[in-house]
Amino acid sequence: MPATVTLLFVGDIVGKPGRTITRLALPRLVARHGVDLVIANVENAAGGNGITRDIGETLLDHGVQVMTTGNHVWDKKEALAYIESQPRLLRPGNYPAGVPGRGHYGARTRDGVPVGIVNVMGRIFMNPLDNPFRVVREQVAAVRAEHGARIVFVDFHAEATSEKKAMGWHLDGEVTAVAGTHTHVQTADERILPNGTAYITDVGMTGPHDSIIGVDPRPVLKRFLDGMPAKFDTATRNPRINAIVVTADPETGRARTIERVDLSADDVDALDRRTEP
User: Fold this and answer.
1) In a domain, 129, yes or no
2) Nearest CA-CA partner of 239 in 8, 70, 34, 21
3) Residue 277 pLDDT > 50
4) Domain range holding 20?
5) Residue range 239-262: average pLDDT?
6) Under 8 Å CB-to-CB from 174, ≥6 apart: which residues?
7) How many domains does the chain have?
């Protein structure tokens, strides 16, 4: 068994700009950090809203190994069938019983170490799903029982900072990492909690950062000014990849380090020229 396991989690991939920089960055980041498993939130990967089969399979071909989602998971109708046939595409586990898909997945690193991935969604300013604080424990227990995973990574897709912070403390010492998604703004509060769980309130957005959380600013500003409906299109300029790298002890499942990643396209190109991490 390796001394450490390194996980790369890519924050919400938004549209074509997000998919493109993900494709370019993944091999470089995997090589630079010695990544053993790549996870990404893909719920905005198809035109800024939802996921399709073609885009999901393309992201898997580019090196993503497990895909998480959130409140936009059903925005493309074909996701209903795709999620049933692709076990590596998760939806929040606190959707009611009978909803297509699943909220956890057991992956293995290239060295054969089992890693559990769990996806749940918050309820503050979000759709009123089942209680994520109860369901997340059930999902963690299931992925441990089914796959023998000591390392467990949780994507908590939620709006409120307080709810995300609460989930981190709720799971401290029980999982390897709790990573917040959904707001598309990377926070600077990454840390290892006292009992060994890596935590960050929001990993951020992988996509066009000359935008309002991924959307062309002009119609958004118009709507704020006049309150009238407007068509929101995905922005295109200044693509960046927001992510975290977490290293963990495979024997205990505790996190050892967490590092934020925030790179422009030029930064990604420069990774090829760097020899030292």
Assistant:
1) yes
2) 21
3) no
4) 5-271
5) 98
6) 137, 140, 152, 197
7) 1
104 among known catalytic residues:
no
Query: Which is nearest to 105 in space by CA: 90, 120, 83, 121?
Result: 90
| Whether the Cβ atoms of residue 149 and residue 116 lie closer than 8 Å to each other | yes
The pLDDT value recorded for residue 272 is 79
* pLDDT tens-digit series, residues 138-185: 999 999 999 999 999 999 999 999 999 999 999 999 999 999 999 999
Q: Are 195 and 173 in contact (CB under 8 A)?
A: yes
224 in any annotated domain: yes
Interval 268-272 mean pLDDT: 90
Token pair of 124, please?
């503050």
What is 61-79 written as a DSSP string?
HTT--EEE--TTTTSSTTH
| Single-letter amino acid, residue 39 | I
Q: What is the DSSP string of 210-223?
A: SSBTTB-HHHHHHH
Residue 231: inside a domain: yes
The Cα 162–Cα 73 span in angstroms is 23
Sequential DSSP letters for 127-145 = ---S-HHHHHHHHHHHHHH
Task: State whether residue 103 is helix, strand or coil.
Answer: coil
**261, part of any domain:** yes
Torsion from C-alpha of 215, 218, 224, 227, nearest 10 degrees: -100
Q: Which residue reads 């949780």 in tokens?
A: 154
Instruction: Give the β-pairing of 191-192 and 198-200.
Output: antiparallel
List 33, 62, 72, 147, catalytic entry: 72
Q: Assess contact for 106 and 149: CB atoms under 8 A.
A: yes
Angle at 189 between CA 66 and CA 143, to 5 degrees: 30
pLDDT tens digits for range 190-245: 999 999 999 999 999 999 999 999 999 999 999 999 999 888 999 999 999 999 99
Please tell me the pTM assigned to this model: 0.96
CATH at 29: 3.60.21.10
